[in-house]
Specification:
CATH class of the largest domain: Alpha Beta
Distance between the termini: 39 Å
Strand order of the largest sheet: 6-7-8-3-9-10
Structural class: alpha+beta
Number of domains: 2
Order of helices and strands: EEEHEEEHHHEHEHEEHHEEEEEEEEEE
CATH topology of the largest domain: Rossmann fold
Bound molecules: adenosine-5'-triphosphate
Largest sheet: 6 strands, mixed
CATH superfamily of the largest domain: P-loop containing nucleotide triphosphate hydrolases
Shape: elongated
C-alpha cells in the first residue's frame, strides 16, 4: 500500500545533528503527532517533510514517488504554522481563498469554496469578517481552512494550538481530530504536549535529541513504552532497577518479582504506572508484593496518590478515593506490582530531564 515513507532523514547544522536518521512509514489517512521535549528536532523533521528544510541525508517518498528534491510548492501539502501567518488586512474568506486565487480560480469559485471551508471549520457566515477582528480560536480555524483549500495530500501543522488557552485548546484538539476523520487526509502535527498527542493521534512518534524512540498508537506508547525515556515522558511512571535472579524472577529494591518476558540474566529496568500499583493490607501474603512505609499522601480529587518508600526507592500508587486504605504517613504499607502491568525495559538509557 502506498504511504509517506521517511528513510533515514537526517539534518545537520554544522557539526550539530538536529535529526538523526529518522525512518518511518505513515499509511494514508493517519493522524500522526511528532511529540517530544523542546529542541528534540520535531519542527526540523516536519520542515523536511514539508520541503522547507533540505535534508543532509536520507530520502522521502509519497506513494512510491521520491520527493526528496521536490520543492515545497510542488508537493501539494497544506501547512499551518504556530504563527498562523494569516494576512491581517484581508477578511477570513479572502485569506482562505488566497491559495485558490494564486491558482487562478474565478472569484465565484473562490467565494463558493471559501464558504464551504468555513462551514467545515464551523465558522459559517464569517467570510466577510476581517481576521484582525476574530478571536484566537477563530483565527486558528481560518488558518486550518486555508491550508485545506487546495485539498492537500498531506496536512502539516506545527504547534497549531499552542497560543490558545487550556480550555479552548482542548476543544480545538477534539475538533481537529473530528475534522481529520471526516476528510481522511494524512495529518502530521508537532506538539510537545503529550495529552494533546494522546487526544488526537492514531500514531504517536516520540522523539528526543533528534532520534525517534517509538512510533506507535497512543495506548501502545503508554502501555508498552519502548524505553525509559518514552515511559517517563508519556504520563507518570515508576521506574525500578532490577537484576535477574533466576528464570522469571527479578530482584528489585525490597524483594523479588515474578515476571514473564525477562531476559535470562543481567540488569533490567521495570516500568509500572501508578494506577496499576495496588495497595494491599500489610501482612497479607500474595505474589509480587513489596513492603514499605507510606511517606506521603495527597488527594487529587478523582484519585488519591500514595508515595511509598520501599527500601529507599519511592513507588507511587494511585487509588480511587473509596479504596483509600486507613494508613497514615509513617505507617507500614504493602504494594503489589501485578506482573501483567510491569514493562521490562533495557537498563540505563536516557530519561527526560
Ligand atoms: P521546539 O519544541 O522548542 O520548537 P523542536 O523539537 O521543534 O523544539 P527544532 O526546532 O527542530 O526542535 O530544533 C532541533 C535542534 O536543532 C535545536 O537544538 C535547535 O537549536 C537546532 N536548530 C534548529 N534550526 C537550526 C538552524 N537553522 N541552525 C542551527 N541549529 C538549528
Amino acid at each position: 500500500m502506498s504511504a509517506l515513507v521517511l528513510d533515514g532523514l537526517t539534518k545537520r547544522y554544522g557539526s550539530f545533528v538536529a535529526v538523526h536518521g529518522a525512518s518511518l512509514r505513515i499509511p494514508h489517512g493517519r493522524f500522526v503527532c511528532l511529540l517530544g521535549p523542546s529542541g528534540c528536532g520535531k519542527t526540523t523533521l516536519l520542515r523536511m517533510i514539508a520541503g522547507l528544510e533540505e535534508p543532509s541525508g536520507g530520502r522521502l517518498s509519497i506513494d512510491d514517488r521520491d520527493i526528496t528534491d521536490t520543492p515545497a510548492h510542488k508537493r501539494e501539502f497544506g501547512m499551518v504554522f504556530q504563527s498562523l501567518a494569516l494576512f491581517p488586512h484581508l477578511t477570513a474568506g479572502e485569506n482562505i481563498a488566497y491559495p485558490l486565487r494564486i491558482r487562478g480560480a474565478s472569484s465565484a469559485e473562490q467565494r463558493r469554496r471559501a464558504g464551504e471551508l468555513l462551514e467545515l471549520v464551523r465558522l459559517p457566515g464569517a467570510a466577510d469578517r476581517p481576521v484582525s477582528k476574530l478571536s484566537g480560536g477563530q483565527r486558528q480555524r481560518v488558518a486550518i481552512a486555508r491550508a485545506l483549500a487546495l485539498e492537500p495530500k498531506l496536512f502539516l501543522l506545527d504547534e497549531p494550538l499552542s497560543a490558545l488557552d487550556a480550555k479552548l485548546r482542548e476543544a480545538m484538539q477534539i475538533e481537529l481530530k473530528q475534522l481529520q476523520r471526516r476528510l481522511g487526509v494524512t495529518t502530521i502535527v508537532v506538539t510537545h504536549d503529550q495529552r494533546e498527542a494522546m487526544t488526537m493521534a492514531d500514531m504517536v512518534v516520540v522523539m528526543s535529541q533528534g532520534r525517534i524512540h517509538q512510533a506507535a498508537p497512543p495506548m501502545e506508547v503508554y502501555r508498552r513504552p519502548a524505553d525509559a525515556f518514552v515511559a517517563d515522558f508519556i504520563g507518570l511512571t515508576n521506574l525500578l532497577d532490577g537484576a535477574v535472579a533466576a528464570p522469571g524472577v527479578v530482584a528489585v529494591p525490597g524483594g523479588t518479582l515474578a515476571l514473564p518476558d525477562l531476559p535470562p540474566q543481567g540488569r533490567v529496568l521495570l516500568s509500572i504506572r501508578p494506577e496499576d500499583v495496588l495497595l494491599r493490607p500489610t501482612g497479607e501474603a500474595g505474589p509480587n508484593r513489596l513492603h514499605g512505609t507510606l511517606s506521603f499522601v495527597r488527594d487529587l480529587g478523582a484519585s488519591v496518590e500514595f508515595r511509598v518508600d520501599v527500601a529507599g526507592t519511592e513507588i507511587i500508587a494511585l487509588a480511587r478515593p473509596q479504596d483509600r486504605p486507613a494508613v497514615e504517613p509513617g505507617g507500614a504499607v504493602t504494594v503489589e506490582l501485578p506482573a501483567s502491568a510491569c514493562v521490562v525495559l533495557p537498563p540505563g538509557g536516557e530519561r527526560p530531564s
